[in-house]
Amino acid sequence: MTAEYRAGGTDLMERRASGRSTGHIIDLYDQGLRSIEPTPDGGFRIGAMVTVDTLATDPVLAKAYPALSKTAGSLATPQIRRAATVGGVLLQKTRCRYYRNEHYECLKTGGTGCPARDNPGERAVVLDVGPCVAPHPSSVALAMLIYDAVAEVDRSPSRRVADLYSDGARDHLLEDGELLTAITLPPPVEGERAGYKRAISRASAEWPLAEAVAHLTVRDGVIIRAGVAVGGVAAVPLRLAGVEQALTGQPPSEELFTRSLDWTAAFPETAYKIPLAETLIRDVLTQAL
Amino acid sequence: MRLTFNGGSREHDPAPDDTAAEVIRTAFGATGTKVSCGAGVCGACTILVDGEPKVSCLLPAAHLDGTSVTTVEGIGGDHPVQRAFVELDALQCGFCTPGFVTEATAFHDRWREDREGVPSREEVADALSGHLCRCGAYENILTAVQKACAGAFDDREPIPARVEAPDKVTGAAEYTVDVTLENMLHGAIVRSSQPHARVTFELPEDSVRLLEGDIVRYTGQPIAAVAAGTLEEARKIAHALKISYEPLPSVVDPDEARRPDAPVIFDQNERKNAPSSAEGAGFPARWKGNVRSGYPSAWRGRTARKRLDAARERNAPGYFAATFTTAGQSHTALEPHASVADWRADGLTLYTSTQGLGHIKAAVAKRWSPPKVEVIARHVGGGFGAKLSLGTDAVAAIELSRKTGHPVKVEMSRAEELTDTGYRPGTRTELRMLGTPTGGLAAISLDVAGHGGVSTGSMVATLGLMMYGRGPRHFRDRDIIGNAPPASPFRGPGGPPFAWAVEQGVDEIAHRLGADPLKLRRTWDGNLRRRALYEIAEELPLWRERPIGAQTGRFRRGVGVAAANWIYTADVDTKIEITVRDGRIVARTATQDIGTGVRTVIRNAIRDVFDDAEIVVELGHSGAPHGPVAGGSRSTASVGPAARDAARKLADHLDGKPVSEAEGVTVVGQRPKDKGGSAVPVSMDHMRIGRGLAGAVHMTEVEVDTLLGHTRVLKVWGGIAVGTVYSRQTARNQCEGGIVQGIGYALYEERITDPRTGVVLSANLEDYRLPGIKDTPEMTIHFHEDGWDHVPGGGIGLGEVCTISVAASVANAVFNATGFRPLDLPIRPDRLLEGMPR
Ligand SMILES: Cc1cc2nc3c(=O)[nH]c(=O)nc-3n(C[C@H](O)[C@H](O)[C@H](O)COP(=O)(O)OP(=O)(O)OC[C@H]3O[C@@H](n4cnc5c(N)ncnc54)[C@H](O)[C@@H]3O)c2cc1C
Ligand code: SF4
Ligand code: FES
Ligand code: FES
Fold this sequence. Notes:
The structure holds two protein chains of two kinds. Chain A contains ten helices and eleven strands. Chain A has helices spanning 12-18, 52-57, 59-64, 66-74, 78-83, 86-91, 139-146, 241-247, 254-257, 273-287; strands at residues 3-6, 24-27, 36-38, 44-47, 150-153, 159-160, 180-185, 192-199, 210-219, 222-231, 238-239. In chain A, the strands form three sheets. Chain A has a five-stranded antiparallel β-sheet with strand order 3-4-7-5-6, with no helix packed on it. Chain A has a four-stranded antiparallel β-sheet with strand order 8-9-10-11, sandwiched between helices. In chain A, strand 3 and strand 4 (44-47) form a beta hairpin. In chain A, helix 4 (66-74) runs antiparallel to helix 7 (139-146). Chain A is globular. The termini of chain A are far apart. In chain A, 53% of the residues are buried. Chain B is of the alpha+beta class. Among the domains of chain B are: 185-248 and 332-420, 2-Layer Sandwich (Aldehyde Oxidoreductase, domain 4), CATH 3.30.365; 283-330 and 423-510, 2-Layer Sandwich (Aldehyde Oxidoreductase, domain 4), CATH 3.30.365.10; 527-569 and 686-835, Aldehyde Oxidoreductase, domain 4; 573-670, 2-Layer Sandwich (Aldehyde Oxidoreductase, domain 4). Chain B is built from 22 helices and 33 strands. In chain B, the strands form seven sheets. In chain B, strands 12, 13, 14, 15, 22, 23, 24 and 33 form an eight-stranded mixed β-sheet that branches. A seven-stranded mixed β-sheet of chain B has the order 8-10-6-20-17-18-19, with helices on both faces. Chain B has a five-stranded mixed β-sheet with strand order 2-1-5-3-4, covered by helices on one side. The longest helix of chain B is centred in the C-terminal third of the chain and has 20 residues, at 635-654. Classes of the chains: A alpha+beta, B alpha+beta. The complex binds flavin-adenine dinucleotide, iron/sulfur cluster (SF4) and FE2/S2 (inorganic) cluster (2 copies). Residues 91-96, 133-135, 137, 334, 382, 595 of chain B line the site of one FE2/S2 (inorganic) cluster.
């Protein structure tokens, strides 16, 4: 790797210390990118250096994109959220315990193979979409997906946030040296409500075993728009278009929110994540009602 | 860059990879800000950047340019939050305190600006959720912040709950990691990257060999140590040092290691070199391959086994047999192991983060025979048993200092700390038990395999000799040796895994017999002190209103109990020296305060005699008269009586005159003997086992989310029977910390070792999960103070007994709530979801 951008540094500095990142650093600290501006169509453009804490606490954003704000407010710790940025939270590297351990090399460190496959443990993915079996780390990406957010990149055309991620071989698809400058969100939808929840063993400040986020807009007793995504289950942030479709046009009910996922677990150790994800989906939809 | 630092202006030119924490601690010399996890998890390094709390260990130093930074030193000492921490005892070892104080002052100031009244516990916990306290002082932290926000400390000086609290809330308290000497070098450890191999290597300049022999037996084993001007440089050299490995067959996983065809890790003549995780001398044992079996300790052992076999045959209702397992538990003191050695022609000065400076001094004198040894540990950021003996840090620092002629500092990184500074061994327990509702425990047998990597000395089953009367019993402890790092003593060695199996066994039998688990224990248990606790516990509303029978619904509540006991030990040679200096009473002894409040015990004991004198307690220096090791819960029962004896001697000398009349006078107090002598009439390393057992009963209420597998501990009642309590506030704090640690053990903490490579995967605080402030239940501590009249001072220590039965009480509560018997610790969500009856 030649160079790496540094935003809040909360992911990068840990990898610098462990030797995972060794290239040159380009600091974004004094590059601006911190503004939140309304767009002509009524949406918002959020600079890449806006902090996760701002996503969580800014009253305008909280009202416009409640699913985003709830997700941002639930991750990591208050101190981390104050330093972490929109760019960093979307483009952070995997937290796989093998990747973060200096004793191992794997696909994502530039080597070959995946030591985690032999000993996946209860934290690994349920859905084996690619060579890597560590869940994608970004909680905020989930919320961005269900808002159809668009990423602005300095050297190439804008693309959907969904297209920042691929098949699980890389944590994101930006090329070396490409700079994410902002995220644009389409106009907020009047009357939308949202829910976010993660399954963890402690009460807080813990990486999720699985997490889910949803927004719902109900008009005249019928769901007219739904967004649902789950994390902790695949090497990419996963939007559940099928579930969204099944919800749309229906009157909300507990029965409707009880979705069964027709997944096959990649490992016996992670089979429990399927009912876990089903519960989380029901919970966040209920919250969003 | 240019910034405002604690009010003054500073310029500094940081390297790109420098963190704010490094610059603040090293270049600015402000060591109040602590670094513990280095990964954004623990919050010890929290600073205010333009008023916003941020973790400085991940904050690039360059980002401080143009900001105004405030560290704990910049807060002063009179902030209401600091005052509240001091008076309400919101700390123990104090290593997490600067971080908590810094964050809490920001919360407080914001709160007072826009809100009125008292913030809720939830609000405070949310604000502080990015901080960990391994001592578990959360309850008092929550209260302190609430009271400060309510204005209770706006305009008055606090009355310190513990002697050194003012130093700990201002960052003035100096820990070993804060020590910097002139011309000091930094050392780094070269460690094995293979689980089992023969190694050859050549040492560069300024380095020393640490490995004895040429075989490494676990990944992470120290091989050599190197010194350089900065830690970064030293680590670079260590990393670059070429080690040639000739791999030997290895086996990490205990289930594989116990097989007859597994590669043997210690051959016959090497066995004696295996390290031990036992606190005292190990017991004799037989080896077979990697299995080291102790001789059974039994009482009518054959009868026990016959009864159990017969009960199994006839499906007796009071018979229960199961296999329990526990994960290894890492001590994770927030201050890592660290030493600074200064070897000179006239002697050695060793600053070290230790629980036993007298012991270290003796060990150093024996190993290196320097002309003179001084060991210094002014403040120690937690130990929990991991800092009892001479560790790699001290050995490396001493050797490197001797070799280079410079003072050398060696400090473990969090990964090293979580890999190779010991842990409570994992266990696998075969339990068989036969109970009768009225007649007592008819028979019990326990076969426990300890998984302590290359170390021996797991002692769990043998503790059964102390519990539940005199029924027939058969116990055996084994060690399964594997290519993994060695274990070490951990707060109540053997106790928590023992309780995990046996206390769940008692609960299960009560369930099967339809008996009340507390009443059953009272019937079985001959111990008077614990019986007194059962009687109180039976009357608690928590118990009387507990749910009985199967529950439905997603969220289920349950209440469980478990009991524990622990031996009483004291350092019978403890001396406290008192000198009157500048009109003040200055007390000294060669011990250290690891957060248990020893200073305060000494002060209180003296204050009982001199209630209005100014008392100073000087600890942490090996030159003082002999004092106890902070282990085996012995400090209180050792220093308390000796301090009182010294105070009485001074009072006799004064004969009614004021203290100032005795300027310059020195007296030495000794610990009087127990009435009726001790249980074992010989001392081992100054320590004697006294008569009587400390007792504890824990009652825990949980709520289980049966769909997410999440267990929340709502309430814990802890009944503790250790006689007179010397310092109620610090004792309660320690008991609450014992509960928090027990909850961590039951639900979150799990040492994970890769079965192939022997690499410890839980080597950071994200993957090794400590209980946080939001996991803190409502706690009530009850002290039963009778029954220790034979001990001078009337009371003994509680540091271990107060944590042993907690995890088992959580498990029993989970069973009560869900009908799922958690055999495997920790009770992870996936295990709950898979195990719960549907
Ligand atoms: C204890 C803890 C718990 C956590 N829990 C969660 C969690 O539950 N969910 C979650 O999502 N996250 C979690 N995180 C991770 C955290 O969200 C990330 O560390 C953070 O968001 C990264 O943001 P940053 O600005 O600090 O990025 P940096 O560390 O500065 O950068 C991260 C990566 O992104 C790249 N990058 C950053 N900005 C840009 C840009 N504008 N253009 C191109 N590349 C860029 C960098 O080059 C780097 O590779 C946790 C972190 C910690 C320490
Ligand atoms: S799971 Fe992914 S990050 Fe982890 S070792 Fe495998 S390839 Fe590397
Ligand atoms: S040391 Fe910075 S968060 Fe733990
Ligand atoms: S007082 Fe918090 S870690 Fe010791």
